[in-house]
Each structure stands twice: as C-alpha cells, then as structure tokens.
User: What shape does this take?
Amino acid sequence: MALRDRIERARGSGVAKPEVVERDGAGMLRSRLVEEVDLAELLQLNPTQRRARLERIVHRMLREDGPVLGDEQRRALVRRVVDEALGLGVLEPLLGDESVTEIMVNGPDDVWIERAGRLERVDSAFAGEEQLYQTIDRIVSTVNRRVDESSPMVDARLPGGERVNVIIPPLSLKGPIITIRRFPKPYTIDQLTEVGTLDRDLAALLEACVRGRLSMVISGGTGAGKTTLLNALSGFIPGRERIITVEDSAELQLQQPHVISLEARPANVEGRGEVRIRDLVRNSLRMRPDRIIVGEVRGPETLDMLQAMNTGHDGSLVTVHANSAEDAVVRLETLASMSDVMIPFEAVRQQIRGAVHVIVQLERGPDGRRRIVEVAGLASPRRGAFKLQTIARFQSEPIGPEREVSGRFEHYPLPDALRRALMFAGEHLPAAFEGKREDAPEREAEGQETLPAAAVAAATRSRAERDSEGS
Ligand SMILES: Nc1ncnc2c1ncn2[C@@H]1O[C@H](COP(=O)(O)OP(=O)(O)OP(=O)(O)O)[C@@H](O)[C@H]1O
Ligand SMILES: [Mg+2]
Assistant: This one.
C-alpha cells in the first residue's frame, strides 16, 4: 500500500485498527474495541475520561471471553490495548519512565532509549510498519503537520512537551525513524553542581556574571546540556527584570514573575505562516526587554542578537552549537554573516567583540556525563584575531577501561575587564578567581581568515542581482 494511503487510512479513524493478531489476543481486542466503541461519544470526553472509558470496555471484553490471565497480566494487556488505541502505543510506557531521556525508533522493531547518558536497546516493537506510521501520524497531526513523500522530515512536539523528529523513506533507508527528546528536566545550579557539571566556585562566578549583566554564550555539541545550563543560569536573573525568551520550540522554564516566552512557528501544510527566530528577536526589541534569552542561534538571527547585545541589551544569554570555545566564536561569525543585511566582515567581528563577554563550553564526556569543560573570557583587541582567556577548565585524568572520567576543575584569575565589570555591578568575585593573570592560559581564536566562499559570493553580489534571482 502506498505510504499516503497508509497514512490516510490511519487518519480515517480516531482508534487504531489492528494489523496483526498477536498470540495474547491484543489484536482481537483492538478490533473488537473499534467495533464496540461509539466514536462520536468518545470524542465528547476529555483524554482522561476517554482512557477510563476504553479501559472499562476492554476489561469487560476480557471478562466475557478473554484468555485466563492473572491480575497483573490482565492490567498490562488492557493498558497496552488502550495505549495503542489512544496514545502512542509501545512508546507510552517509555514516555512514562522518568529515567528515559531519549527514545529512538529505527523502524518497527528496533527501539532504543537513552538512560543516564547511555544507549540501551529495548524489547518493545511495533506490530508492523503500518502501526508505526499510524503513531507517526498521530504525533504530527497534533502540530498541524503532515508526513508524506513531499514532506518526509517533520519536527513536532508531544502534549507533554517532548520534542519529536520524524524522517521517513526514501530519505531514511531503514524505514520510518522517530527520535523523541524528553522535555529537559529543569535542574538548579545546585543540582548541576551535585552531579559534577561544575563546581561551587564556578557556580558562584556564573551567578555573579548573570547578575552583573555580562553577556554569555553557552556552547556545546548536540545534547551536551546547553539548554539545561541556560535554564539553570536564568534562575540568577533578578525577579524585577522583564525577561523575553525566544525559542524554536519552547523548552526553557523560567521561574521569575515577569517572563514573556515567544516560540517560532514552522510553515503550515500549505507552506504559509512561518515565523522565524529572527522575526521574534526583532520583535522582542520593541517589547521593552531587560534581558533577551535566545534558546539557540543557528541562522541569521545571530546578527540581530549581536546587534541587540551591542545596543544596551547586555546580560543576554544564548546557546550555540559548537565543539570548543574557539569554534563558538567562528560559528557566531559565520552565522552572523549569513544575514541578508550586507555587513562587512570586520564589522561582524566588531559586533562579536562588543557583544560577547563570556563563553561557557559544555561537553558530554565518554561516561555520558555533561560537564563544563571551559569558561573563557573573550577579550577585545581592536583588530585581528580574537583572544580567548581561560577562566576555568576541567582537567581530566586519562580515561580508564570502564570509560569513567575523573578530574578536577582548575580556576584562573579573572581577566581585568570582566573583574571591573563585576565590580561596577556590585557583584562579589569568588576568591578562586582573584589574583593576577600572569600565567593564566590565553590563546588566539583565529576566527576565519576569510568568509566561506558561498558567503563571499553572496556578499559581493549586488542587491539587484539577488532580487532578480529570487524572481
Ligand atoms: N548537567 C547535566 N547533567 C545531567 N543531565 C543533563 C545535564 N544537562 C542536560 N542533561 C540531560 O541531557 C539531555 C539534553 O539536555 P539539553 O536539552 O539541555 O541539551 P542541549 O545541549 O540543549 O541539546 P540540543 O543540542 O539538542 O539543543 C536532557 O535529557 C537533560 O535532562
Ligand atoms: Mg538545546
């Protein structure tokens, strides 16, 4: 059956149809459920009532002529049938398990989870491809999107806030793939300190930096814990400030009384109505923000963000995807030059120098734990290469066969400019960062000698040329 037909068929009814008959009778129960249940009535109920109603019906069917089962088995079977009829089937118990941070479905019978930073394969499997497509359709229809040959990749969100990515054949060779990221559990800085992401001195320094309105970039690879740290750091923003957050998909959970959260929107099924991060950043400037927090910069909004940070919106916090502090600077440079505003390259650098005070680099270690591996100040010589001044770093011991990581955080005296900024803001400098920076590590972050070729080409074309290309 064509993919589209499969999806259409699944969409046709609110209750899943059985694909195979399993030995324990789940398939039979599902098909009887479809026959017995009054869909119109079911739609009147709220989700909790709907589940309760279906559970009652399945219990009754089992009592009347089901296999003989113990109480526990019976409950599990009822839950499974109802989960599959209403929810996300085999994914439901995984979603219900707090210790699971990520769920990866690689086709109907290959399901993996991440727990405590490590991957495990689980026994769960979908009854077949059709059931998997049905689940996918349920997920994406809640965000008014569609998955089919013409849009084979979709980002969506579950009602509980979990982020979902779906990609289907022919782009994925292995079958339909679902990747679910649990809504990040909010950690406080104290909790992060306890699990070893940073130490007490660093926590005190970062607190002073946030309260003292230094602008910070949190950098790291995928899943390194950037959003989690950003959320924790935002807790230090004084309650009297008006905070505006801008995100692709809202994950931050700020506790202050005066927070405005803005969320970007992808185009709808007809390809209309897209609102980009950049539009929201620009709009936020007209909303009298005391602080702007951008969940992640990954495109032309970087330039708007840098400009905002340069024009009085200091104390801003943002994350960027990069593998080292140097990389973060280069990435900001590249992203800012992706903007359609024609801005000379040296001016982009000038913007970064003026805007960014501190870079916090996160890493997920071989032991699955997330750690701050470096905090660096970005010094601003007038021209030439950027200068990164290490303020703290994690010094790791050689990694043993168990892949356990041990090591310690090293601290260095704070660069003068940052020390002055904190002093003027009336913030206390933790003793670990006192002293003269004579031997403290410093290095040049080359940045790019030149822009990437494509960006140069784009930048040197006249506006008329670009306009005519667009038509
Ligand atoms: N310091 C930490 N200690 C333990 N677990 C963490 C830590 N930071 C993040 N996590 C967990 O790791 C997962 C990914 O975290 P998070 O979303 O913050 O990463 P990210 O770097 O923002 O990812 P992405 O690149 O996808 O935006 C979440 O499940 C989160 O709860
Ligand atoms: Mg993130």
Remarks:
- Residues 226-227, 296 surround magnesium ion (ligand 2) (CB under 6 Å).
- Residues 6-22, 450-467 have pLDDT under 50 and may be disordered.
- The chain is about 35% helix and 20% strand.
- The first helix runs from residue 3 to 12.
